[in-house]
Amino acid sequence: MKFRPTPFRAHCLLATTTLTVATLTVAALSLLAAGARVNAAESFDLELRKRVETGEETGSFQMTRQQQTWQPAETAVVVCDMWDLHHCLNATKRGAEMAPRMDRVLKLARARGATIIHAPSSCVKFYADHPARKHVQTIPRADTFPTDIGKWCHIIPSEEQGEYPIDQSDGGEDDDPEEHKKWAEELKAKGLNPRAPWTRQTKLLTIADKDFISDNGEEIWSILEHRKIKNVVLVGVHTNMCVLGRPFGLRQMARNEKNVVLMRDMTDTMYNPARRPYVSHFTGTDLIVEHIEKWVCPTITSDQLLGGKPFRFKNDTRPHVVALIAEREYKTNQTLPRFALERLGKDFRVSFVFANPKDRDDLPGAERLIPTADLLLVSVRRRALNKVQMDALRKHVAGGKPVVGIRTANHAFSLRGKEAPKGRFVWERWDRDVIGGHYTNHHGDGPNVKITVAKKQANHSILKGVDRNDLVGHGSLYVVSPLGPEARPLLLGQIPDKPVEPIAWTNTTEAGGRVFYTSLGHIEDFQHEAVKQLLDNAIRWAVKTR
Questions:
Q1: DSSP, residue by residue, 127-190
Q2: In a domain, 4, yes or no
Q3: pTM of this prediction?
């Protein structure tokens, strides 16, 4: 099913209720201190992230990063619909939480000489006498305008290649029903429309006299043209609605050839986890960001300007699973993303690293993602990594962090003793050091593997809810005995006239990291709910959520 976004214009966001005077005072002092260190006209050195298909019609995308230097005089930051209030209470809270960080971004960008445009849609009349609104009126009207620059944009041609990732047809409210009811009553008691309570931009964002205030596509385009703006940064809400679709949004900027980016940690979505694909609110945002990076424009993060780490909502406590996928036979580049969306989307943040189709020993982006992982999910077969990637892998293991491996993962970084290509490195003892196995070969294709539960392991948490009658091994049986001293078999596999072999076990690394491995992972194995439940349980066990 190709992309058809819901034609829902529910006004984007919001933001803010109150902060204590003490908090505001401390924040203000910090900002003044930070501002004192800003050099006017200092360039913006940015890393733009995109997602590019690994090959024609592969359906697998790898993150790519491009370094760009932007001149402030050629750059604008557009603040989309950061309203004072919203009909969704959770959206209001998230906006208020994000706004102080956003204000720091705006102050730094302004101090360096960038143009700041505040676009609180439908609230511009509130600012009729504000110098930033009057500033707009000093800008000459552009000689020409792109077609429909004053209109909402629902889709651009590039998006037709993909599927829109979330169902937002209900408006995306994720409030508890009772809390939402009380919030609506509170808004009504204040004389506000509970469905559209916004009256202005949040007070948590500073509007300088030299800024601009407009929600009009032609006015904003005129500002960009008059100031010779090439680069546009979008911040604000909501990504899946206003940030994408407004006349000054990502789609209009991209299709009219501005060098536009989304600041992906300074935004939020209107997404209700009760709707497809039934993932957490924050995973819903991740999916929209992924869609944007594939089909609309690159993204950046606020730390590229401010330093430190990207912003993260306090309620976003999801462990980060990084999946390394580099094998050709079992098509885990198809099965694992589907599994992750279906099983992990509510509780985990999941990132994928796919092999470079032009260089089998390159996992683009692994060196950046592995250090951020709370757990590595490995589906790799006989690859030799470059030093930076291998060092990141070894550091993950040495740090006692968990690993879950499927099928070929026990010989992921072994070349059977052959010398690695120049500049590449193997980990021949990976199987023994991490997986806890002793892979030597596999029996040829033949009958399906009969699976039984190992003695005294029937009540192990990894086997909870796993239908033993639905467990069947479709791939050849691996020869892995004897297991390491810390390994504990959970499932055993057998084919006629061959010895029994462990096909699923736990292990503990020397650094104390939890490890789960299974030789299941054939594409047909993922047709069984029992296999998916097993892997789901194992990941939760490994990060100690079970």
A1: GTTSHHHHHHTTSPPPS---TTTTS-----GGGGGS------TT------HHHHHHHHHHHHHT
A2: no
A3: 0.89
